[in-house]
Design a protein that fits this description.
single chain; Rossmann fold; 2 domains; 6-stranded mixed beta sheet; flat
């Protein structure tokens, strides 16, 4: 296998930059640059040199096979983070025989191929790199730490136990008094199905944490929606005007709301109009609002509710509180002064937090669909068992298919076509 190298830290000026080398020649490369190889997993200050030039004074770390991120021999060069220093070291590495620059995600792909990570952990690492909020970080770190593989392993053990009992019954079918294992197998499958169904039901909500929630701001023209969006974003995102119908399209602003990723949607004012462009904007506003996780209906003092369907968790808020400072029921906000905005954010966070499940470990549609396939096969196996002794061989085959479906969650089977897409999203040094 080739020895690969790349800048593993962010590009640009920094106090420190890390260059990673992985492959059979990585330790020999360190010897060429520094004159010797430091003790394994012990940082050592070394002077890097090549072709008579001193490149940098760097901390050097080396790792043996099976004790590194990739599962191969690995070396890391912790450099001073100037552009010139990094460029000089990368240039020196490019001149080493047998070395080449790593492709996007190639270090992580080697970790997968060498059994250091399973596919779910790879996806968790990708999410961890992309995490923007605390909720995303915690969720991704749980997956990267191997929670999916552990849970899938427990489910698979239940399937293997059930299948083994069925196979034993089939093998000894000619015995005078065969042991009836169907009650134990039935109990195993009932418990398995309960756990798989629970997991599938909460995985959609966990995926929302990964992708982000949507909150639609609705109201009549000039209700102050765009002004409120600007206040929430702390910058001028939307054009505000006293002329009705200024907002024609849906404007989006992504924010961190107390650890949750939230995209706020500023929508066209809800009213009857003959303007075809404004009508299209209103139709789009209604569609996006219907698909949002939460709707905030902004009303003028004393205004009637517009004709839009609201759910039990949606918020009705009185706007322009600066113009109507008196006390009143419900939330009152002002996009001009910011009055009540903190309370609104707290309420939005509380209502979205109720949508975040406390259990479950799956966070991607691919994983959920694999579990749904396993549920289908396990249900078929249970049906075959209930149809009598003569159907046990079919039940055993359904269980093998269920195990295969679960194996695809962690990348043991049927995932080769996914790998190119997954690793293409990684940076070069990962």
């Amino acid at each position: 296998m080739d020895t690969i190298y790349a800048l593993a830290s962010a590009r640009g000026k920094a106090g420190l930059s890390v260059v990673r080398i992985s492959g059979p020649q990585s330790h020999e490369v360190v010897r060429r640059l520094t004159g010797s190889v430091p003790a394994v997993r012990r940082a050592s200050l070394r002077q890097l040199g090549w072709n008579g030039d001193i490149l940098d004074d760097a901390l050097v770390l080396v790792f043996d096979e099976r004790a590194s991120f990739t599962g191969e021999r690995v070396a890391e060069l912790h450099l001073h983070g100037s552009l010139a220093t990094v460029s000089a070291v990368l240039s020196a590495l490019s001149e080493q025989p047998g070395l080449r620059i790593a492709e996007p995600g190639e270090f992580t792909r080697r970790a997968l191929e060498n059994g250091r990570l399973d596919l779910a952990q790879v996806e968790g690492l990708s999410d961890l790199i992309e995490a923007e909020t605390e909720a995303q970080r915690k969720q991704a770190l749980e997956v990267f730490s191997g929670a999916v593989g552990t849970r899938v392993g427990a489910w698979r053990e239940m399937i293997v136990r059930a299948a083994a009992l069925l196979e034993a019954t089939i093998d000894f079918a000619d015995e005078d008094v065969p042991v009836d294992v169907t009650p134990e197998v039935t109990d195993l499958l009932v418990r398995l199905l309960m756990e798989l169904r629970d997991e599938a039901s909460v995985s959609v909500a966990r995926e929302r944490v990964r992708e982000g929630f949507e909150v639609a701001i609705l109201g009549a023209p000039n209700a102050g929606k765009s002004t409120l969006l600007n206040m929430l974003a702390r910058r001028d995102v939307a054009i505000t005007s006293h002329v009705a119908g200024t907002t024609r399209d849906v404007l989006e602003v992504r924010m961190d709301v107390k650890g949750l990723p939230v995209t706020f949607l500023d929508t066209a004012g809800l009213r009857e109009t003959q303007d075809p462009i404004e009508t299209a904007g209103i139709d789009r506003a209604r569609r996006r609002a219907a698909a949002a996780d939460l709707r905030v209906l902004l009303l003028d003092e004393g205004a009637d509710l517009p004709s839009i369907e609201l759910g039990p968790d949606d918020l009705i808020v009185i706007g322009k509180a600066d113009q109507h400072p008196g006390p009143g029921p419900g939330l009152r906000v002002s996009g001009e002064t910011g009055a009540g905005v903190t309370d609104l954010i707290d309420e939005i966070h509380a209502r979205l937090l109720k949508k975040v499940p406390s259990g479950g470990i799956l966070i991607r549609e691919r994983q959920r669909m694999a579990v749904l396939r396993a549920i289908g096969f396990a249900e078929s196996a249970l049906d075959e068992i209930r149809n009598g002794f003569g159907r046990l061989e079919l039940a055993a085959e359904e269980l093998r298919l269920a195990a295969r479906a679960l194996d695809s969650v962690v990348g043991r089977v049927d995932v080769e076509d996914l790998l190119g897409e997954i690793f293409a999203r990684f940076c070069i040094g990962k």
